[in-house]
């Protein structure tokens, strides 16, 4: 994603009604204080420009949706997209995914989506991949028992890496395919910005759903 820095983006993000500033304050209280309902809590990590969330929050109004994105210029595009939506089940966090355990209590999250995460192909950048075992352990610490992690990527190497790391980090694989669109898992699939780019070039999409093994 080529990025033009915008000096005003930080302030616009901070002041946007859908952005929760100081998310640590709501650890353990997302349902009771922020959303004020008992609906399941789903996170999309590395939301990008927000196409998936702006659609799914309308199609699934009984879910509390949170998008996490660390680059303010990109988040601003997701926020702009969300402005025309007449829903109250969507919030955004401007932060790094590594802050997740500071913001969510053990078992507070029902589902996590990882959509076309940056592949970080160089070996020395392995730890930056959002499916590195250190991240997978963090996700486990906030997911409820029976919670789910869903991943889509165009990148075969990242997909294989993720399968290996999931095994290592104590997840069980529930669904998996190297060609989402040729599989039964495509039913109800909502494409992201990156996904549309890749599918328009007829590239296959790798998909998996995993759950932390009960200890
Ligand atoms: C390749 S884009 C994919 C965007 C979107 N999910 C899609 O499928 O169209 C990856 C996004 O994840 C964000 N990202 C990467 N690492 C992150 C991290 N550690 N914390 C928060 N956001 C991150 C990037 O800034 C970027 O917007």
From TrEMBL:
**Pathway(s) served:** tRNA modification; N(7)-methylguanine-tRNA biosynthesis
* Molecular function via GO: tRNA (guanine(46)-N7)-methyltransferase activity
- Identify the enzyme class: transferase
Q: Which residues form the signal peptide?
A: none
Binding-site residues for substrate, renumbered to this chain: 122, 154, 192-195
Superkingdom assignment:
Bacteria
> Matching InterPro entries, A to Z?
SAM-dependent_MTases_sf, tRNA_(Gua-N-7)_MeTrfase_Trmb, tRNA_methyltr_TrmB_bact
The chemistry this enzyme catalyses reads:
guanosine(46) in tRNA + S-adenosyl-L-methionine = N(7)-methylguanosine(46) in tRNA + S-adenosyl-L-homocysteine
* Gene3D superfamilies according to UniProt: Vaccinia Virus protein VP39
Tell me the keywords, alphabetical order.
Answer: Methyltransferase, S-adenosyl-L-methionine, Transferase, tRNA processing
Q: Could you tell me the EC number(s) of this protein?
A: 2.1.1.33
**PROSITE patterns attached here?**
SAM_MT_TRMB
**What protein family does this chain belong to?**
Belongs to the class I-like SAM-binding methyltransferase superfamily. TrmB family.
Q: PANTHER family under this entry?
A: 3-DEOXY-D-MANNO-OCTULOSONIC-ACID TRANSFERASE/TRNA GUANINE-N 7 - -METHYLTRANSFERASE, PENTACOTRIPEPTIDE-REPEAT REGION OF PRORP DOMAIN-CONTAINING PROTEIN
Its biological function? Catalyzes the formation of N(7)-methylguanine at position 46 (m7G46) in tRNA.
* Identification of the protein by name: tRNA (guanine-N(7)-)-methyltransferase
Species whose genome carries this gene = Desmospora profundinema
């Amino acid at each position: 994603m080529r990025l033009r820095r915008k000096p005003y983006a930080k302030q616009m993000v901070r002041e946007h009604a859908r952005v929760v500033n100081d998310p640590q304050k709501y650890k353990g209280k997302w349902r009771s204080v922020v959303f004020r309902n008992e609906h399941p809590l789903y996170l999309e990590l590395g939301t990008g420009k927000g196409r998936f969330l702006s659609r799914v929050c309308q199609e699934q109004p009984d879910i509390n949706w949170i998008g996490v994105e660390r680059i303010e210029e990109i988040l601003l595009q997701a926020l702009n997209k969300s402005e025309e939506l007449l829903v109250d089940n969507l919030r955004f966090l401007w932060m790094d995914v590594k802050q997740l355990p500071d913001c969510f209590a053990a078992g507070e999250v029902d589902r996590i989506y990882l959509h076309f995460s940056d592949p970080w192909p160089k070996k020395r950048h392995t730890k930056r991949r959002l499916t590195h075992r250190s991240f997978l352990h963090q996700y486990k610490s906030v997911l409820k028992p029976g919670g789910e992690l869903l991943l889509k990527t165009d990148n075969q190497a990242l997909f294989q890496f993720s399968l290996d790391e999931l095994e290592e980090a104590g997840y069980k694989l529930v669904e998996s395919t190297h060609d989402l669109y040729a599989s039964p898992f495509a039913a109800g699939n909502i494409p992201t910005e990156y996904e549309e780019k890749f599918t328009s070039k007829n590239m296959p999409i790798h998909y998996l759903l995993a759950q932390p093994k009960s200890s």
